[in-house]
Design brief:
The complex is a heterodimer of chains A (343) and B (210). Chain A has seven helices and 19 strands. In chain A, 24% of the residues lie in helices and 31% in strands. Classes of the chains: A alpha+beta (343), B mainly alpha (210).
């Protein structure tokens, strides 16, 4: 077994033939298996240190790109003093309230000691990831000037620069995209549920939370194609969406529904700071409130799950929302330590 | 849970006030503030910032997918936070990597069992090899050392041509073909030089791996 063949595999550059030869060599003896494991572990450890060593060794670090540490992009910039006031008042109404200084993002970059994003096999492309936690929303401009709004508890991963035939980003959670038109380089939005969206120049809302069984997307302008893997046949199917159409995808049931949305603007209402419930069953209401405000709900009376809510909230605090809900349905609530108990 | 961890980190790393005064100066406006132990957070943050990149890189090296790797890192640090009282802080780093190893093994096992590989079986074969390598590895001590300074030391031990080639391949990200062109030698010469460089590194690291 040529040493360099193993290195090619670790780099991700080995051909299928070479991989086959490694597999049969590893299977020959447990000594080979152990040797292979050691080589991989050593290679990984050596490679992981590459970034910070580059800083210490005096070389032209042209390709050792430092990724920009993404500071907090505020949807609204609010003075610290004002923030304290808003804090007490809950979410004071302010036109597009609801974002306030919750347009906070934090980038995993910020917390890494070497100040660089995690870069993988490609030495040249650094990937950025932005997370919003519950109770926080965010906004980011991608390298191609496309704009993305992130709802709470969402994540987007994108490269520092879009190279190649497609512009690839990965999301989980909920996001509203306004994609810059570029017919030669479609944007591919990949998700955690084995489906992806191919878009040219479009605006759409996509929702695919890890802790939910189904995902949906609503198209506003332009056109998108949704590619998904059929769990049963393992083949990839494609559906095309027209403006104001929504698709709803449940991977577990291999179900895809495509329909014209009666009120498509409800799906993106969160972006403008509104929480819209229309005959929404309580389990869903609670889930959305937990995300929106970052509070946790405990329901003591199971009957509550049967109720449905129709209401629109913009910038009310959780307490104000509970007061309103108390008026329209027979519930009692108490709030302590960011936990709301309903009975 | 992860979000609580992450929110702790926002507060810790970006705001000077490390004391929670309910109702004031909390950057994330929550109506009720949770009281937490300051020293535990400080220790966690120190370990987190020193190891997040390495754990993520490690996971990505075996899983080949950055967002899965990030999920592994998330899980590792979340469970670390939850188990902090029970873990000997001297052994924190090996704990993190053992945790990451198990998380990756689970992820690979899931992939291999689900058998949803599309056209090319290169992905499947790669997963198989990575699974085999991972389960046979005893590497957690590797990350206790300052790999960076070992590499710097190793580089001083290399012959000039080897070091030059190593730098071009590692830090400038040049392909072997490109380096061969620059150096005016054949590609196999470059491969040999890189092998020699890695051999030096491995000799220095050999005491830290089983």
């Amino acid at each position: 077994m040529k040493k360099y063949t193993l290195i090619k595999f670790f780099k991700g550059e080995a051909s299928e033939k070479e991989i086959d030869s490694i597999i049969s060599w590893v299977n020959e003896s447990s000594a080979n298996k152990k040797y292979f494991a050691r080589e991989k572990a050593l290679y990984t450890a050596i490679s992981s240190a590459k970034q910070s060593v580059a800083d210490k060794v005096v070389v032209d670090s042209g390709a050792a790109k430092r990724s920009k540490i993404i500071r907090y992009a505020t949807y609204f910039s609010v003075a610290a003093a004002a923030a304290a006031v808003f804090f007490f008042a809950g979410y004071a109404s302010h036109g597009n309230g609801g974002f306030l200084n919750s347009g906070k993002l934090f980038s995993s970059d910020k917390l890494m000691s070497s100040g660089s994003a995690v870069s993988v096999f490609s030495h040249k492309t650094t990937m950025h990831t932005l997370y919003t936690e519950r109770g926080v929303k965010g906004f980011i401009v991608l390298p191609d000037s496309s704009r993305v709004w992130l709802n709470s508890d969402s994540k987007i991963t994108y490269p520092e620069e879009f190279r190649g035939k497609t512009r690839n980003v990965t999301i989980s959670g909920e996001a509203y995209f306004e994609v810059q038109k570029d017919s030669l380089h479609p944007m591919i939005v990949m998700t955690n549920k084995n489906f992806s969206l191919e878009v040219l120049g479009t605006s759409f809302n996509i929702k695919s939370y890890d802790n939910e069984d189904n995902a949906m997307a609503t198209l506003y302008t332009g056109s998108i194609k949704m590619h998904y893997r059929n769990v049963n046949t393992s083949k990839i199917s494609t559906i095309k969406l027209k403006p104001n159409e929504t698709f709803n995808y449940t991977p577990k049931l291999a179900e895809v529904k495509q329909f014209i949305s009666l009120k498509p603007e409800n799906d993106k209402a969160w972006k403008d700071g509104a929480l819209v419930f229309e005959d929404t069953p309580m389990p869903e209401v609670i889930k959305m409130l937990e995300r929106w405000h970052g509070t946790k709900f405990i329901v003591k009376n199971d009957e509550i799950y049967q109720y449905k809510l129709s209401a629109v909230f913009t910038s009310e605090s959780i307490v104000q929302i509970m007061e309103i809900m108390k008026l329209i349905m027979p519930i009692k609530y108490s709030c302590k330590n960011n936990v709301v108990t309903l009975e | 849970m992860v979000n609580e961890v992450l929110s702790v980190l926002i507060k810790m790393s970006n705001y000077n006030s490390s004391i929670f005064v309910p109702g004031l100066s909390s950057p994330v406006e929550r109506p009720c503030v949770v009281d937490t132990d300051i020293s535990k957070k400080a220790l966690f943050e120190k370990i987190y910032s020193a190891n997040l990149q390495r754990v993520t890189f490690f996971a990505c090296s075996y899983l080949g997918d950055i967002s899965e790797a990030q999920n592994v890192a998330h899980d590792v640090f979340t469970s670390f936070w939850n188990k902090m009282e029970d873990v000997d802080m001297e052994r924190a780093v090996p704990y993190l990597f053992e945790s990451a190893k198990n998380s990756c093994l689970n992820a690979l096992r899931k992939r291999l069992n689900a058998n949803k590989y599309s056209d090319s079986s290169i992905k499947e074969k790669t997963d198989l090899l990575n699974y085999s390598a991972l389960e046979s590895s005893g590497f957690s001590r590797l990350y206790e050392v300052d790999v960076e300074s070992i590499i710097s030391k190793g580089m001083t031990m290399m012959k000039p041509k080897v070091r030059r080639t190593f730098v071009m391949s590692r830090f400038k990200g040049l392909k072997n073909r490109e380096i061969a062109g620059i150096e005016g030698v054949g590609e196999s010469t470059i491969e040999a030089r890189i092998t020699a460089a890695l051999l030096i590194m491995k000799r220095l690291l050999k005491d830290y791996i089983d």
